[in-house]
Automatic annotation (TrEMBL):
It is found in: Membrane. This is N-acetylgalactosaminide beta-1,3-galactosyltransferase. The keyword Transferase applies. GO terms for molecular function: glycoprotein-N-acetylgalactosamine 3-beta-galactosyltransferase activity; nucleotide binding. It is a single-pass type II membrane protein. InterPro entries: C1GALT1/C1GALT1_chp1, Fringe-like_glycosylTrfase. Keywords: Glycosyltransferase, Membrane, Nucleotide-binding, Signal-anchor, Transferase, Transmembrane, Transmembrane helix. Its EC number is 2.4.1.122. The chain crosses the membrane at residues 7-26. Residues 164-257 form the Fringe-like glycosyltransferase domain. It comes from Cudoniella acicularis. Pfam families: Fringe (PF02434). It is an enzyme of class 2 (transferase).
Length: 434
């Protein structure tokens, strides 16, 4: 019997590790180093533009990051997406100052019983030995590359933070209406969040996020943002005081912080309210556009690099009505459409709805798209021609692999015709609005 249980246990541990690796690849895109072109230190936090963005005085934002990425990501995030946020707390695996922002160590109460001899904490110890958070990104720079096993270590450590962040945010700013927990590569669209929060009731126990599954159990994907009401947070932090401390001992054999948070809330009687695609895990470039989402509001974007955060920040600044919620339709029409060319080499536009056989050239693939009146875009990889007929998207760079080369094309005329055919988005409906 014991043997049976232990082999099941071993299976579960292996499954959790594999899922962790998959989740990791989804969560951490490889990215070039980036130097901001904005001098965020000189800009004032509450500029006039923020007067349009009031109404979230009782909302706390927490950002979860790590010392290997914090300096690269946090400044731009604070200056773009979060520039008008009244209460932002940044939690990491090492305390530091970034400009005037205090970054807290989310792991500082975890007892040595848990950390000692636990390889999940190797990177934590290395960072502590280095002492200076500014040195961490250069000395441990390879931690961000998923091909490097040490990168997985940085990500593995991350799971220990989630419950502590919920508790620490309450301790720093107790009894607020909403706590919105995001990652350092999440972009919150402030005007959309304002409109949404106004339509929600903080006195209901609400746990709002983007639904995902691991080992058959639902959870809210952390990078898309986790919105917890006052009542839900109170239940976890006050009614069940000591939750994070008791889970410290159990995190090692669990996959992910966001997954554990969902199981804990479920144990306390709080069910996840799925708010995808308003809380969204894609970047503007990887969102598939189609009629189902077209008029839906967007509150978060994910995998947003500092370059993309600046691009999106500028898009927000040039909007005609800056306080209206941003809809998918607007992102496509006013941010993306002009950037989409007719053809692009070494690019994956993710067309995959229909495979066309016997195509031996890009030109043939483009012709196959032209011949199919539903086709918005095509992708030729040297051995396959795929058409995008159900939706369209820009996609992302994809360097050649051996003989395989990614060549994307779009039919802009057809996409434009589709766009102009959509009925205008008149009334905006948010998920779970009162
Ligand atoms: C949790 O319990 C501790 C110890 O009794 C107490 O000091 C702390 O204030 C409690 N925290 C909350 C949020 O109620
Ligand atoms: C701008 O958007 C806000 C929020 O949706 C709305 O109340 C307001 O009427 C809009 N202003 C204009 C000029 O359309
Ligand atoms: C593809 O080409 C092969 C060989 O030329 C031919 O036998 C086959 O019928 C073609 N298939 C289609 C779907 O045209
Ligand atoms: C496209 O349609 C034309 C005209 O019907 C036909 O000659 C051509 O073979 C088709 N091309 C492809 C790739 O399907
Ligand atoms: C794009 O679609 C239009 C309308 O169906 C068609 O006339 C045109 O040939 C297509 N363009 C390309 C480059 O395939």
């Amino acid at each position: 019997m014991f043997k049976f249980r232990s082999s099941i246990f071993r299976f579960l541990v292996v499954a959790v590790v594999l899922l962790a690796i998959v989740h990791f690849y989804i969560s951490v895109p490889v990215e070039d180093t980036y130097q901001s072109t904005w001098d965020w230190r000189l800009e004032s936090h509450n500029d006039d533009a923020c007067s349009l963005f009031s109404g979230l005085e009782r909302v706390v934002i927490t950002v979860k990051t790590g010392a290997t990425e914090s300096l690269k990501r946090i400044p731009t995030q604070l200056q773009t997406s979060l520039r008008c946020a009244p209460h932002v707390y940044v939690f990491s695996d090492m305390a530091q100052m970034i400009g005037e922002t205090q970054v807290y160590d989310a792991l500082d109460t975890i007892p040595t019983e848990v950390t000692e001899g636990n390889s999940d904490f190797d990177i934590y110890r290395k960072q502590q030995e280095l002492g200076d958070p500014a040195k961490v990104p250069s000395v441990l720079r390879d931690f961000k590359d998923p091909r490097n096993p040490e990168a997985l270590a940085a990500w593995t450590l991350d799971k220990y933070k989630s419950l502590h962040v919920v508790e620490k945010a309450w301790a720093l700013q107790p009894d607020m209406d909403w706590y919105f927990h995001i990652d350092a590569d999440t972009y919150v669209i402030w005007s959309s969040l304002i409109s949404w929060i106004q339509r929600l009731d903080a006195q209901k126990e609400s746990f709002i996020g983007s639904l995902s599954y691991i080992v058959g159990k639902p959870f809210a994907h952390g990078g898309s943002g986790l919105l917890l009401s006052n009542a839900a947070t109170r239940n976890l932090v006050v009614t069940h005081n000591g939750t994070a401390a008791s889970w410290d001992y159990k995190m090692h054999e669990n996959c992910c912080g966001d997954w554990v948070l969902a199981q804990v809330l479920n144990d306390y009687g709080i069910k996840l309210m799925n708010s995808w695609p308003t809380l969204n895990g894609e970047t503007p470039d990887t969102i598939p556009f189609a009629s189902d989402h077209w008029c839906q509001p967007v509150v978060t974007l994910h995998h947003i690099t500092p370059t993309e955060a600046e691009r999106f920040g500028k898009f927000e600044q040039r909007r005609e009505n800056k306080s209206a919620p941003v809809l998918y339709a607007e992102i496509f029409k006013d941010l993306l459409f002009d950037t989409i060319p007719d053809e692009l080499a070494d690019w994956d536009n993710m067309a995959k709805d229909e495979a066309v056989s016997n195509i031996t050239s890009v030109e043939g693939c483009i012709e196959a798209c032209a011949n199919n009146s539903d086709c918005f875009q095509s992708l030729y990889t040297g051995d396959e021609c795929s058409l995008g007929t159900k939706n369209f998207r820009f996609g992302e760079k994809h360097a050649p692999e051996g003989n395989k080369k990614w060549q994307s094309s779009w039919n802009r005329t057809r996409i434009a015709a589709w766009v102009s055919k959509q009925t205008p988005c008149n009334s905006v409906a948010f998920p779970f609005q009162e």
